[in-house]
Design a protein that fits this description.
The structure holds 2 protein chains of 2 kinds. Chain A is of the alpha/beta class. Chain A has 2 domains: about 180 residues, Rossmann fold (3-Layer(aba) Sandwich); about 130 residues, Rossmann fold (3-Layer(aba) Sandwich), CATH 3.40.50.920. Chain A is built from 12 helices and 14 strands. The mean pLDDT of chain A is about 95. A 6-stranded parallel sheet of chain B has the order 2-1-3-4-8-7, sandwiched between helices. The chains are: A alpha/beta, B alpha/beta. Chains A and B meet through helix 3, helix 4 and helix 5 of A and helix 5 and helix 6 of B. The complex binds thiamine diphosphate and magnesium ion. Chain A: Keywords: Oxidoreductase, Thiamine pyrophosphate.
């Protein structure tokens, strides 16, 4: 076991996969000589050389398209979005080509591609650098979307994403890079399509992902003291969603709260609620509740910013309120 | 009114060809022409649907470039992709079946007119949004260099040709990719088919510098202007660019001055282009020109050319009946091909 920062866990994942498979390469802005804005590719340029850790010009749309073409012809590129927000410029390539091309081509090509980088609301970075994009992309057919949340799952998931034959949008959270955790010395993978039961419980299912997992766990402590026993599930896979794991939990607790960082309108929770209604309506003892961030551009001001995203206190209150509902 | 660009006199010596090569190129051009004529007929008879963009008039570009490539080189196209697919070796049957949305189509009926793909023929595909195919082609070119240099695969000397129109050269992806291709010396041909129009937008009204080949110079790659109605001129320029690319000397921008004989798509009333302009370009029909050349140079006689035309009529008829008789995709496979495992 070795204590490892999340950014370094990601770096290890890339390093290990590049060592094991020569077709794996990284490209993006400042990934090479500079080592990546969050040091996820630090020293890899020196180790693997110019072409395998490729510093690109600032041309998101075209270098994403280029990665797709390279993936179609047999490489396994990892695109780093310096900030996932910049990938809005590559929306066309991500949607039309990464997501849809395999289908449109009738299975002629596969696109083993990872697009990763820091997303989420940071600390006073302003609206454009504090985006909540996962919901924008969730409707794109053919994409897998994954959000990591701990050093352990970050490493195992990224390794799986690199080995996957599909395009994977891999969300890291800008405020989680310095989380520390003991990681196994031996190699491990974490599956891309499985939610993680973070805390088993009986009373209520709290579904969350990415940084909100840690807010939820912060709220769980006082809830435990008050005698509540919530089950916490980290989605990990935002697309496709692991309804098996959600279903097992809902059949046990019959109550669901979803905590997300993305916006309420058209968010991840909106989709999950609709699907829970389709699949597990009869199991519910109460309407599903969602705690989402506000439908506004992320404000710069610190106080307004914290009002924009969900805080642990709100999660605590929501659980108490839901448990008071009698059926 | 903007001044029309006058056609320069072209100096590039025509490619030297044998009779065999001449007939191979002629057959490819005839196939492109007859295939598209058949599409128009089927569309107007209400048998073919969707947006259908035909290539009539531009055959010298597809045949001139693609027939100078090796079988394992890559081709990237646009929505005007049927003829590029045919030149790249995709059987007429699979292209026609795709147009009819059949399971036997090269994209299994999931793509349609604007999305012809064939991994087997290294056809990177038809892209319906202008510009987006250029970076994808760039990726294929990058991949060749990557394999050669980091994986020690000496056989990875494939060249990638990316085709797109004049209108597309005003899009950022064109410039971004010129930059990256030149920067990394990628084995790539940027082939602009300047047919003077982007739907109803005349080229001169859309761009500050209508001479597209000149845009290469600022990125430090060669830009060449060629008569896109002269298949041998295109072939000569392509051969040189391909040799450079294969030798690791980097990309070339080739601007082919050409013209489409039909509207933008079969849904386009084509009211903006003057009768004069159309007649002038029609008189430069690349197929008639090449025919005359073949005969003049004693590379073929009327009989041989006629036999080719008859053969291709048969190929197109066969493709049509194959397409019409082919099965539709199975509705139970609606979700197939979303993910790599399907
Ligand atoms: C991104 C995008 N915007 C608009 C269109 C609609 N559109 C289709 S073809 C076309 C004109 C393209 O002209 P050009 O590049 O000269 O190619 P040509 O059709 O002449 O072969 C336009 C505007 C599109 N397909 N994609
Ligand atoms: Mg045009």
């Amino acid at each position: 076991m070795a204590e490892t920062f999340l950014f370094n866990a990601l770096r290890q994942a890339i390093d290990e996969e590049m060592g094991r498979d020569q077709t794996v390469m990284v490209l993006g802005e400042d990934v090479g000589v500079y080592g990546g804005s969050y040091k996820v590719t630090k020293d890899l340029h020196g180790k693997y050389g110019e072409l395998r850790v490729l510093d690109t010009p600032i041309a998101e749309n075209s270098f994403t398209g280029m990665a797709i073409g390279a993936a179609m012809t047999g490489l396994r590129p990892i695109v780093e979005g310096m900030n996932m927000g910049f990938l809005l410029l590559a929306f066309n390539q991500i949607s039309n080509n990464a997501g849809m091309l395999r289908y449109t081509s009738g299975g002629n090509f596969k696109i083993p591609l990872v697009i990763r980088g820091p997303g989420g609301v940071g600390r006073q970075l302003g609206a454009e650098h504090s985006q909540r994009l996962e919901a924008y992309f969730q409707a794109v057919p053919g994409l897998k979307i994954v959000a990591c949340s701990t050093p352990y799952n970050a490493k195992g998931l990224l390794k799986s994403a690199i080995r996957d034959d599909n395009p994977v949008l891999f969300f890291e959270h800008v405020l989680l890079y310095n989380l520390k955790e003991d990681l196994p010395n031996e190699e491990y993978l974490v599956p891309l399509d499985r939610a993680e039961v973070v805390r088993p419980g009986q009373d209520v299912t709290i579904i969350t992902y990415s940084r909100m997992r840690h807010h939820v766990m912060a709220a769980v402590k006082p809830l435990e003291r008050k005698g509540f026993d919530p089950e916490v599930i980290d989605l990990i896979a935002l697309k496709p969603i692991d309804y098996d794991t959600l279903g097992q939990s809902i059949r046990k607790t019959h109550r669901v709260i979803i905590v997300e960082e993305c916006m309420k309108t058209g968010g991840i929770a909106a989709e999950i609620i609709a699907s829970i209604n389709d699949r597990f309506f009869d199991e519910l003892d109460a309407p599903v509740l969602r705690l989402s961030s506000q439908d506004i551009p992320t404000p710069y001001n610190g106080r307004l910013e914290s009002l924009t995203i969900v805080q642990p206190q709100q999660i605590e209150e929501a659980v108490e309120k839901m448990m008071q509902l009698q059926v | 009114m903007v001044q029309e660009r006058t056609l320069p006199t072209f100096q590039s010596p025509p490619a030297q060809i044998s009779a065999e090569e001449g007939l191979m190129i002629y057959e490819d051009m005839i196939l492109g022409r007859y295939f598209e004529d058949k599409c128009a007929e089927m569309y107007y008879r209400g048998k073919m649907f969707g947006f259908v963009h035909l290539y009539n008039g531009q055959e010298a570009v597809s045949s001139g470039v693609i027939k100078a490539l090796r079988d394992d080189d890559y081709v990237g196209s646009t929505y005007r992709d049927h003829v590029h697919a045919l030149s790249a070796g995709v059987p007429a049957r699979s292209v026609m079946a795709e147009l009819f949305g059949k399971e036997t189509g090269c994209s299994k009926g999931r793509g349609g007119s604007m999305h012809m793909f064939s991994a087997e023929h290294n056809l990177l595909g038809g892209y319906a949004f202008i510009g987006e195919g250029i970076p994808v082609a760039l990726g294929a070119a990058f991949q060749s260099r990557y394999r050669r240099e980091t994986m020690g695969d000496d056989a990875a000397d494939q060249v990638t040709a990316s085709f797109f129109g004049d209108g597309t050269t005003n899009n950022g992806q064109f410039f971004e990719c010129l930059n990256m291709a030149a920067l990394w010396k990628l084995p790539m041909l940027f082939v602009v088919e300047n047919n003077k129009w982007a739907i109803g937008m005349a080229h001169e009204r859309a761009t500050s510098q209508p001479e597209i080949y000149r845009k290469a110079s600022v990125f430090g790659l060669p830009g060449i202007e060629v008569d896109g109605m002269d298949v041998l001129a295109v072939r000569a320029v392509a051969q040189e660019a391909i040799a450079r690319a294969r030798a690791g000397e980097g990309p070339t921008l080739i601007e082919c001055l050409t013209y489409r004989f039909r509207g933008h798509s079969l849904a386009d009333p084509d009211e903006l282009r003057s009768a004069d302009e159309k007649a002038k370009w029609q008189s430069r029909d690349p197929i008639q020109r090449f025919e005359a050349y073949l005969i003049e140079q004693n590379l073929a006689d009327d009989e041989v050319l006629k036999a080719i035309r008859q053969k291709i009529e048969g190929v197109v008829e066969d493709a049509l009946s194959f397409a019409q008789d082919s099965p539709e995709p199975d509705p139970s496979e609606l979700y197939r091909y979303i993910f790599a495992e399907d």
